[in-house]
Amino acid sequence: MHGDGDGWAYGPDGVRHWGRFGAAGLLVRAPLGDAGPAVLLQHRAQWSHQGGTWGLPGGARDSHESATAAALREAFEEAGLDETLVRVRAERVTTDIRDVWSYTTVVADSEALLKTVANRESLELRWVPEAEVELLPLHTGFAASWPLLRAEPVRVLAPPPLPRAGARTVVLPGGGFGWLTGIEELTGGEGEAAGRDLTAVVGGDAGRSARTVTLPPSALD
Questions:
Q1: pLDDT tens digits, residue range 65-102?
Q2: Which residues contact 135 (CB under 8 A, 6 or more apart)?
Q3: Cα–Cα distance measured from residue 40 to residue 109, given in angstroms and rounded to the nearest whole number
Q4: How many Cβ atoms are within 10 Å of 55's Cβ, its own excluded?
Q5: Are strands 101-109 and 54-55 parallel, antiparallel or unpaired?
Q6: CB–CB of 19/5 below 8 Å?
Q7: The whole model's pTM is what?
Q8: Residue 3 is assigned to a structural domain of this protein
Q9: Of 149, 177, 200, which one is at a domain's C-terminal end?
Q10: Structural domain span for residue 40
Q11: Based on the structure, what is the number of domains in the chain?
């Protein structure tokens, strides 16, 4: 499908970027049980820009589209994803050439590994365990932004009754991302009243030290 965003934008250095009004892509995670999340990646067709590398389903924004609308449309066109099965959590501008072009990564998740249907822009679509993303030859733009987009494990500590929430992306203080691995009960009067902020333990994987942060109750909505 062709829209009015199809075309090149040129930076002051003469480098061209696809999307007259910028571009957007969808980073969608889904649970892999105890193995943490998987990320849906696209193995780009050889004829495309940086063909043979791996990146996110995405493409040019049309003039009337928000970044989220463009990312969901492109994910449907390139991967057959049903947007009603995807929950958008955040937007991040991961490339910004002032007054010329930008790329927005829309961060989302689904309750399960969704079925995909590749179009001619893909050699393959694959749900890749998050820990293995960096092992693939990544599109340079995605490789540069991945450290800002990757998710750390998150355990929420809450007073009873415990909130009902499955594995999902959590937006962390400072703008990073976590992946909810569980909700544990606070004991000994440590809990706070319902509706108050939540305590969460972030990290502690791959030899990294865990830290404690505060999350709003809406983090589990």
A1: 999 999 999 999 999 999 999 999 999 999 998 888 99
A2: none
A3: 10
A4: 23
A5: unpaired
A6: yes
A7: 0.90
A8: no
A9: 149
A10: 8-149
A11: 2
